[in-house]
Amino acid sequence: MTQTHTDGAFHVFDTTLRDGAQMEGLRYSVADKLAVAELLDEFGVDYIEGGWPGAIPSDTEFFARAADELNFKHAKLVAFAMTRRAGTTAAEDPGFQALLDSRAPVLCLVAKSDVRHVEQALRTTPEENLAMIVDSVRHGREHDREVFIDCEHFFDGFRHDPVYATLVVRTALEAGAEAVVLCDTNGGRIPSDITEAITDLRERLAVDLAPERIRLGMHAQNDTGCAVANTLAAVQAGVMHVQGTANGYGERPGNADIFSVIANLETKLGMRVLPDGCLEKMTRISHAIAEIANLAPDEHAPYVGHAAFAHKAGIHASAIKADPALYNHVDPVVVGNDMRILVTEMAGRASVELKGRELGIDLSGDREALDRITKRVKELESKGWSFEAADASFELLVRDEVEGGLPRPFTLDTYRVIVDHDPAGHSVAEATVRLDVDGARVIATAQGNGPVNALDAALRKALSERHPKLASLALTDFKVRILAGSTGTDAVTRVLITMSDGGSEWTTVGAAPNLIEASWNALAEGLTYGLNRQ
Amino acid sequence: MTQTHTDGAFHVFDTTLRDGAQMEGLRYSVADKLAVAELLDEFGVDYIEGGWPGAIPSDTEFFARAADELNFKHAKLVAFAMTRRAGTTAAEDPGFQALLDSRAPVLCLVAKSDVRHVEQALRTTPEENLAMIVDSVRHGREHDREVFIDCEHFFDGFRHDPVYATLVVRTALEAGAEAVVLCDTNGGRIPSDITEAITDLRERLAVDLAPERIRLGMHAQNDTGCAVANTLAAVQAGVMHVQGTANGYGERPGNADIFSVIANLETKLGMRVLPDGCLEKMTRISHAIAEIANLAPDEHAPYVGHAAFAHKAGIHASAIKADPALYNHVDPVVVGNDMRILVTEMAGRASVELKGRELGIDLSGDREALDRITKRVKELESKGWSFEAADASFELLVRDEVEGGLPRPFTLDTYRVIVDHDPAGHSVAEATVRLDVDGARVIATAQGNGPVNALDAALRKALSERHPKLASLALTDFKVRILAGSTGTDAVTRVLITMSDGGSEWTTVGAAPNLIEASWNALAEGLTYGLNRQ
């Protein structure tokens, strides 16, 4: 059932930079948008909708720079706008002229297909709405543009008045639209609705149109949690164009996640919708776009999440080892992701061995080391450590047992942290650390916003002379969790710290009844790991 | 097409505390689990799966305490385990005995339905697997338990060997299982797969079983991003039992989000699956469980997310105001959420008024106080406060604005917290507070396991003479979260503290870049509230 890549016959249409940019709290600079567009082209989508030139000044600038600076390998750039305004012509509409001025080779024009929106939002007649579509499509075609029509609120409109909604679609197709995209704008549909509506629509269109002229697309929003499934249902009902956004970014609960849509089309329906070799870039591209958007990648995202193929080993470790295909729904490598075995309190020797192999350490020949490591993991976990998310701490522990340990750039003698709240209501934190650094006694004091920030600053100050590389290690995430809620402020605290050297990231853990002590452990291990890594 | 609540005929089966607790990085204390179970019962689910007694020590403790302390209004508590081991009897299997000892009235037993897993993971024969199911179901029934069978990897097993997978389901139903739950354990299915498999299965079962005996359930994982849609497809194909977790928590990309599933069943398929008046609690229950799990609520979650009904007003503001139903796929009030228009600051006043009414304070007559409170809430929330789970802090704030405030038993002058780590590796925390207590200057110093514990001890010591009742107020929970959007150790920290006077509990909040300062705020408000309450 596997096909070859269907060039031109099926469209992957990305709207990360237009509809996806509507997400609350998300702001791209023009440079951000150029970088995202390049990533999307590298990923192999067919169309990249870049924004609304003429209406949004930074989008006008984006298209101007894109025309000069971007050189897509595969994709075509799309400019979005409304069909021309009521009571004028496309040639005379300044909004439409801005669209042509953008130099984008493809236009995507939003049109009303729900007669209630025609009357209440556009405040015009159903007939004029049709004339706006025809005139706009023809004007775009006359200027050598490919033109798509997005039918806003299509599914509500079709339910309310199927005759008019069908007329809108047919009119756009007959006027020369490349495809007409059916939008579930308010996102209220579930897959059975989509199947039913598209099947009905196709039958109505088939009265006047030859099958090859019925070119439909799907644009789903995620308000029922079904955007990906709705898009698949539409493809199975015959659409040949799917819209979505990177990581499902978008207004309200977001748009259909284009990564999940593509991975499902390719691995579940056996379609080839990307050029060869592109699907395996998916995890990397997803995370890179999240970084540009300045949003934490969703750890639990299907296919591309850090946890998407993470298994708690426990009792099934040996079975997973024997046949991972029984536990993964697809081979993670296909989408550029990895399988991970989580080391948990239930972990036995088998999962420690498996985890070691992931880190490139073969423990299969050293039964005694394996026993020591397993025992130590269990001991630490009973005290509140957790290695599930702290690969770097786990690796330090393993290397300590098998190779005598990584070199330690420093050992702690003492630290003192003071937090003062003064009568004026200001608080300040100060930390002093006394370390042994390669045999020398070093003392440093620093202030910070809070106690851990001060400790981090003092530690870096103490090490900066001997380890100038330290300046390139950034602390990127700091998580605190209180364990065993029943015992209040004297409960055990677990701290997870993530550091980055710009290229890769690693996470360390510390646990203690004293939050400062737990933070110290995670900080010290994070810097030790980072300095050894370089 | 709307029905009345189908008591008993349709099951909502929640597995937040069992399968959902497998989520990477998530750890509940026993007290957390008891609190989540109470919320789920209040929400009106039919079954609450609490864990695996006998296998996980904290789950054993949860069931013991649940039997003594929980008094469900609607739900039944479910204990999870495997069917009995191969080569023994259920009566002789100590794992099975632990299940009965849990005193849970309902058992959910996981069984293999994929013959490859029977052989490779269980390492037994297909026949013994069937015997294990029959023996386990009967033994549970003989001890007056309702028994469910979860068929692990059902959809893979059915595709690989439909005859054996069907035999497993039929065997379990014939042995007396209340329902057999079809699990997409590795989460690799899309809705059309589910429809096809369940339709085929039902035809195969109908050969031997009367229609009313074919009682099936659905358990979906979200690895294709289709867990909610798969669950809906299963209901449309005839299952009468759905499993899911609060907010979709679970391993890898998680489980079917029970909130989205229920909202779709009720508002899209016209079913009544919750008792009357429960659906509108959904948003609040979702956020409260997120707080207990110490995970940020997903702003973009369908139905319950803060952004689920947020509209950028833009050009359509007046159209939205005239007829919100054209822009919202359901009325947000139905699920206890609000519509928000992002450009206005109008949102909030209505919910502050509603919240005040909940606390017994009528704000409807005092427009100015309502405005002051709303403004103050927004101000504090922009600095990291969150009142969703901190009713006591909210009440203090409201009473300050309408009645001149509750009496303050003390005001802070200064505090100092010192944490020392000595050369022997021991760490100690010491706090000194200087307060004004009813006009008198009081100073007290105390030690603790960590900085917040020391601060708590010093504060209590300073107040103990004037407020002896303080001894009866216990600090029962302490949660710390580093807020997203800010990075590293200088990010904003939010602290939630729960206190109890033995009878009732209350929660307060503090937020600041300095963790100690945030903790102080929450501590001071918690004691102030507690002393006023008595």
From TrEMBL, chains A, B:
Enzyme class: transferase
PANTHER family, A to Z: (R)-CITRAMALATE SYNTHASE, ALPHA-IPM SYNTHASE/HOMOCITRATE SYNTHASE
PROSITE patterns the UniProt entry points to: AIPM_HOMOCIT_SYNTH_1, PYR_CT
Domain Pyruvate carboxyltransferase: 10-283
Pathway annotation from the record: Amino-acid biosynthesis; L-isoleucine biosynthesis; 2-oxobutanoate from pyruvate: step 1/3
SMART domains from the UniProt entry: LeuA_dimer
Signal sequence residues: none
Record organism: Glycomyces buryatensis
Record GO terms (molecular function): (R)-citramalate synthase activity; 2-isopropylmalate synthase activity
GO biological process, one term: L-leucine biosynthetic process
Record's catalysed reaction(s): pyruvate + acetyl-CoA + H2O = (3R)-citramalate + CoA + H(+)
CDD domains: DRE_TIM_LeuA3
Keywords (A to Z) from UniProt: Amino-acid biosynthesis, Branched-chain amino acid biosynthesis, Isoleucine biosynthesis, Transferase
UniProt protein name: Citramalate synthase
Family as reported in the entry's similarity comment: Belongs to the alpha-IPM synthase/homocitrate synthase family.
Keyword Chaperone: no
EC number: 2.3.3.21
NCBIfam families named among the record's database cross-references: citramal_synth
